[in-house]
Amino acid sequence: MRLGASRAYNGPAAGDPLALPLATPAQVAGLFTFVNYVTVPNAWTYGGVAMGLNPSAGGGGTLYTTNAPGASVGALQLPSLAAIRAGGASTSVAIAPVSLPNQGIGTGIGNLDVVGTLPDPVTGRVIVTETGAYDVAGGTTAVMVSAAPDFSSYGTGCAIDSSYYGSGVYPRHYAGCMSLTPAIWQPYFGRAFVAPGPGGVNGIEYLCWGDGFVGFEPANVSQVGGVEVPVNDFVMWPPGQEPPYWGVSSMCTRPNIVGSISGTTLTITAVTIPSIAPSWGTNSYVMCAGVTTAGACVVTGPLAVNADGTGTYSLGASFSVPQGPMFITNTTPAICPGCTGATCIGGDDLASLYEGPPGCAFFVPGTRTIATIRVHQYGPHYGSPEAGTCPSACDPGASSTNDPRRVQVDLADAKAIYLNITGGGAPNAVTPYGWAPFPNWNGVWGTCPGQQANAMGKPGWAVYDWLNQLLYATVPTSGGHFQIGVWAVNTVQ
Fold it and tell me: Which of 219, 282, 465, 486 has the fewest CB atoms within 10 Å, measured from its CB?
C-alpha cells in the first residue's frame, strides 16, 4: 500500500479512530441541522457543482465551484456562520470564473466538465478533476490538474496510477468530488481523497458503479504533464452493465440473493449483501436475466420469511429461469407493467443504471462512518431503454406518477474498508452497511433532484466544511440559478 495507509491493524488503541462506533441509519435524521440559505450572484447560472472549500474559522471561506456547465470554474466568498444564521446573507465573487481548456485530459472529447476542486493548504494549489461526458472508453487519459488558487496558471492533466487496477485503467472513474482527510484518519487513508460517485458525469448509458473512496496526496498532482498520480483504491467499482450482461463487479448488478423459482414460489437461500437490512414484501421485485413475462417478477407477498430475508415468497405469475444470479429490490418501480425483455430493470437502494450525481463524502464526526450524500436514481430514467414504457415523473414530458429519485446518505464502515484492503481484498468487496434519506430532502430539492438541466446535475453539488462541521449544498431555484443551503453537522454521541 502507498500513501498513509501502510500500517497493519492489531486491534484498537488509545485514540484509534478504527475503534469509534458506527453511525446508524436512524441517527442520520439528527445528524443534520438546517441553518439557512445563502444567495448567489445571478451571473452564476447552471453551476454550483465541483465544489471545493477553503474554510475559515467561524464558518465561511472561499468556495470553489462552477458557474456554467462544462469547464468554467471560479470561487465565491462565503459569509460567516453568524451572518448566515441571521438570514439574508449573500456570497460575493472572490475569483472570476475561468474556462479551463483541455489540459491534456484527453483527445477528441466533447463536453469537457470540471467535476471536482480541492484547495490544498499545504501546496497552496487547487486540484481540479475534469473528464469528458459520455466518454466510455476512448478519449479520457488524464483527469487531475494542478492550478494556481486564482486559476491564473495551471498545469497539464495527470493520469492515474491505481494501487489495484494499475496504470491507465478506468481513468475517468477518478474524476469526482474531493476532500482533505481528517488528521486522525490520514495515517490510514492518506491526506486527501476522491469520492467518485455512481452517477452524474460518470453515469454512462448502460454502465453503473457504486460509491467510491480513493486516497491520494495532492502534492503528487504535478504541474508537468505525463506524470501519473499514485492513488489507493479503498473502494472502487469497475463499470457493470444491466441484464443480460450480469456480473458481480458492478454494485448495481451485483446479485444480492441466491435462490430459485418454481412456479409462483421464490425461494431465497442466502442473502449475499447481508449488511443491508432486507424488508422485501408485497410489491418488491425479483430480477432475473432472461425474464420476459410481464408481472412475473412481482412479489405479491411473503410466505415463510426469516429475519435475514431468506425464505419463500409468492410471485405474480409462474415462470422459470436458468441457473444464474438473481436480484431483489424493495424500492419500486424496478420492473414496470408492460415492460418486456431483460433490460427492464431499475435498481436497488444503493445503485442503479443512470444513477444520479454524488454531492460529497465525509467522515461523520464521532464515528468511523464515511457518509456519501448523493442523488439516488432507483427507477427507470429518461433515455434508458425502459423509459419509453414506464417513464418517471422526473422525465421531460412524462405522464407517469412514478418518482424514482431521492437524496440519500450512504453509510460505509471505514474500519471494514481499511481492513479489507490491507488484508488483500478487492476494492469492490465492501458495500455500504446502510443508508437513510437526507432529512426533508424533497422539501429542499423537490421531487426531481439532480436533473441535468438544473444546477445540481453533475458531481460535487455539496461540500463538507471539516473545520466548522458544516455542510454546504447547491439548491436550484429557477432559470438555472441556485442558492446554497447550509446545515450544521452534529457529532454523533
Answer: 282
Kindly tell me the sign of the dihedral angle through the C-alpha atoms of 339, 342, 343, 348: positive
Q: Report how far residue 130's alpha carbon sits from residue 114's, in angstroms, rounded to the nearest whole number.
A: 4
Pairwise CA distance, residues 359 & 197, whole Å: 8
| Cβ proximity of 208 and 253 under 8 Å | yes
Which cell is 408 given?
440519500
What Å distances lie between residue 40 and 59, 391, 420, CA to CA? 17, 33, 43
Cell of 422: 490491507
Identify the burial level of 258 via C-beta atoms within 10 angstroms of its C-beta, where 0-12 means exposed, 13-18 middle and 19 or more buried.
middle
The angle at the Cα of 461, spanning 163 to 408, to the nearest 5 degrees, equals 85
Query: If the chain, 493 residues long, is cut into consecutive pieces of 10 residues, what is the mean pLDDT of each piece?
Result: 38 72 92 96 87 94 86 91 95 89 51 83 90 56 85 82 79 83 94 74 47 92 81 79 41 67 84 60 59 61 83 77 57 42 51 73 95 76 43 49 72 96 90 88 83 68 95 89 94 87
11 vs 16: CA distance, rounded Å: 9
CA 109 to chain centre: 23
Q: Which residues fall within 8 angstroms of residue 307, CB to CB, at 6 or more apart?
A: none
List residues bridging with 208 in a β-sheet.
Answer: 240
**Could you tell me if 316 and 298 are in contact, meaning their C-beta atoms sit under 8 angstroms apart?**
yes
Residue 331 CA, distance from chain mean position: 18
pLDDT at 38: 97
390 within 8 A of 430, measured Cβ to Cβ: no
- Among 162, 186, 134, 242, smallest CA distance to 3 is for 186
- Three-state secondary structure string covering 70-118: CCEEEEEEECCHHHHHHCCCECEEEEEEEECCCCCCECCCCCEEEEEEE
Q: For residues 198 and 211, is the Cβ–Cβ distance under 8 A?
A: yes
Residue pair 131/144 in contact (Cβ under 8 Å)? The answer is no
**Model pLDDT, residue 300:** 79
Check if the beta carbon of residue 155 is closer than 8 Å to that of residue 147. yes
Specify which residues 132 forms β-bridges with: 112
> Which amino acid is present at 183?
A
pLDDT at 345: 45
Instruction: Find cell 467535476 and name the residue.
Output: 115
DSSP string of 303-324, one letter each residue: EEE-TTS-EEEEESS-----SS
Residue with cell 415523473: 393
Task: Please name the helix (run of DSSP H) or strand (run of DSSP E) that holds residue 73, with its range, or none.
Answer: strand 72-78
What's the N-to-C CA distance of the chain in angstroms? 33
Q: And the C-alpha cell for 464?
A: 463538507
Q: Shortest CA distance to 408 belongs to which of 33, 22, 32?
A: 32
Q: How far apart are CA 461 and CA 480, in angstroms?
A: 14
Q: Are 18 and 12 in contact (CB under 8 A)?
A: yes
Nearest to 213 by CA among 423, 487, 452, 429: 429
